[in-house]
Amino acid sequence: MNIAISSSKGVLSRRSQVRWRLCWENELQLADHTELSTFFRKTYEPAGAFNGKLFEGNRSWARARPELRAMGYDARGVAAHLGLLRRFIKVGGVDLLVAELGLYGVCPDLEGLGISHSIRVMYPVLHQLGVPFAFGTVRPALQNHIARLLGRQALATIVPGTRVRSTQPDVYLDLPPTHVEDVLVVVLPISRPMSDWPTGTIIDRNGPEL
């Protein structure tokens, strides 16, 4: 499925439209994985060379592998990406089905496109899947940025003061098997209200981060 979204004022340097493609993982071809691998290395390496290692060998995922992807394309190829994976997490001891959103990336000169565009493309799919909540994590330093992008549309709620425990990616077998992060938890109520989100200061993914 292709969805056309016109470029916003902050994205006019490309002078193009970004077209979104929603794609299940089994529908991707080797050429897709190769292009995505290159995109992620270029997107993630500026934050640290080790980030790029996760995408070596045409690998188009970093930790857990998504089941559905929203991919934005412009004239140069892949311009933005957001992955989705349904999973059960444990919130304060309560098992909860969520659609985890992650593996977000955008080309530097398209930063104005914003994560809100990616979520807007994914939002109808979340309703079709019938999940209670969508869930993602961001670094605390991005709280104001995320609140500004998502708050205007009241799509999500930021849950502060929560730590998330995950397993290490398989490329880091020399590290401890799990790690705990102090992050901001972002929750999108889908088929259940935000008041049904369990209370708790620890979330267990029982698996690797998306």
From TrEMBL:
InterPro entries: NodA
Short name of one Pfam family: NodA
Keyword Transferase attached: yes
Main location as per UniProt: cytoplasm
Gene Ontology molecular function terms on file: acyltransferase activity
Family, as annotated: Belongs to the NodA family.
Name recorded for this polypeptide: Nodulation protein A
Source organism of the structure: Microvirga tunisiensis
Gene: nodA
